[in-house]
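Quick question, first post here. What does this chain look like in 3D?
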Amino acid sequence: MKHSRVINSLGHAGLLPFLVAVWAVHAELSFWEWSASQLFLSYSVIILSFLAGALWGKAIELEESEVSCLLLIGSNAFALTGWLAVLLGKDYLPAGLAVSMTGFILVYLVEHKTQGLLLQGMGSAYLKFRLTLTCVVCLAHLLILILIL
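> Answer (accepted):
Ran it through. Tokens below.
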């Protein structure tokens, strides 16, 4: 896998804000007018949008096909899902968190389903890595939900 060391480092580093936010929610910290759970959701949506953009980038490299068109549409749907999560999170934080978590699961499922097209040359190690990251992110979402309900 190209750039595996950088990819692994950035992926694991990307988990730190999720984990710190869980701790901050548990400690009932806030930052200016933002609760730790709101900051968690905003970071979550940024990462979800990043993953959607990565799908877009891979889809435009593919030959024009039904699958590549669906990936392009799906990448936009995931980004809009993140926006919906933010909008919900303003007044309905648990719903926003659930929408965001669902987005992460769906992005992973799309990657898994289309791995032959999207992950050419990357091997199964990348997909296992993505599964690990997705599981930690979803666990963090669940912990936040438990802490705020």
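The longest strand covers residues 30-31.
The two ends are 41 Å apart (CA to CA).
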